[in-house]
Design brief:
Elements (H helix, E strand, L loop, with lengths): L1 H19 L7 H14 L10 H16 L3 H16 L6 H18 L2 H23 L6 H8 L1
Amino acid sequence: MKKILSLAVLLSGISFATLAQEAPKTTKSEVKKEVRGDRKESGKKHKADQTPEEFAKSRTERLDKKVKLSDKQRKEVEAIFLAEAKESKPASKEEGMKRKEASMAKLNSVLTTEQQTILKEAKGKDRTEKSKHKSGDKGHSKKADNKATK
């Protein structure tokens, strides 16, 4: 009787242990959903989940942190971003680039020359960081890596 009871307890313990293990996320969509869920818990919304007003406000706040906008500039910039957010998606990449250039021209007309240079420097810095991140470069140069392997 003791053997049967201990065997039943052992088998049930093994079955609970196997059920408790979570299967790894295999598809990209499941991983993205998990990341977006974390974002929602932190209070941040994904661009697709925001209204045009929220999107314009968040972009204006980010720009304000970089170039320190005045109250008048903040209202004008938010209006530019709101109009941009309300536009439908561009049909082609070229159309999207034209819209972006037009939007930047409007934005530059609102900003002072000092703010424009700060913005250009910040964009250049952001682009280099993004390209390093995308290429997997962790601060190592290819020449240094080649010398290390030889």
